[in-house]
Amino acid sequence: MDKPKILICDNEEAVLESLHNILARDYETILTNSSEGALEKLKETKDIKVVLLDIKLGGIETLKQIKNMRADLPVIMVTDYQATETTAEAIKLGALDYIIKPINAASVLGSIRKAL
């Protein structure tokens, strides 16, 4: 059986690597370091099951574009600060959850399970 595909979008190489390492055993990860790259990957790969999106990478605008492309696709925001107005706005606009940096494996895996 194919592993579910997770798109990870973050401009920090260490965060991309950390998330990949946490998820690679059970999921196929697709990595990009730009919001443009994330949107391109979504167009190219129709069977992505979840998106992890850095809130700083065009956050709200990119979230809106993703939801316009695929309204049912779960998006989990990745942020380096706790609940803020931006995070709250992202949830209102359809983000399923958010993960706070530094990355915690249990938190990431819990959010992914909730999304699937």
Please give a handful of descriptors for the protein shown:
single chain; 116 residues; alpha/beta; Rossmann fold; 5-stranded parallel sheet; 5 helices; 44% helix
Characterise the protein shown here:
By secondary structure, the chain is α/β, with parallel strands linked by helices. It has a single domain, classed as Rossmann fold (3-Layer(aba) Sandwich), CATH 3.40.50.2300. Helices cover 44% and strands 22% of the residues. It has 5 helices and 5 strands, in the order βαβαβαβαβα. It has helices at 13-23, 35-44, 59-69, 85-92, 105-115, and strands at residues 5-9, 28-32, 48-54, 75-79, 97-100. The chain has a 5-stranded parallel beta sheet with strand order 2-1-3-4-5, with helices on both faces. β3 (48-54), α3 and β4 (75-79) form a beta-alpha-beta unit. α2 (35-44) packs parallel to α3. The longest helix is centred in the first third of the chain and has 11 residues, at 13-23. The model has no long low-confidence stretch (mean pLDDT 91).
